[in-house]
Amino acid sequence: MKFQYIFLLIIVFLTYVQAKSCPIQITGSKWASTTGGNPGCYGLNVPGAYKVATPPGCCYQFFDDFGCKGKRLGVVHCGNSNFHPISPKSVTIW
Hints:
signal; single chain; 4-stranded antiparallel beta sheet
């Protein structure tokens, strides 16, 4: 019985240690913003966004409405990228 608890704690610890962190830095025409961290949906306010810096292996998709809804802006990007200026309201990071 004790072995089962130890095994479960090891699994939880390894899952926590290997959790992916994906902060993204978005540069726009007026200012830059850093968002993210854990995978998920984040609201944005970066008018004229044209450049993203993020760790390798992190992917993201911009949307024209809050809550990662509405029209997708551009294509899915993974890693650093430069693109034509957009004004996203939210981003999904994974």
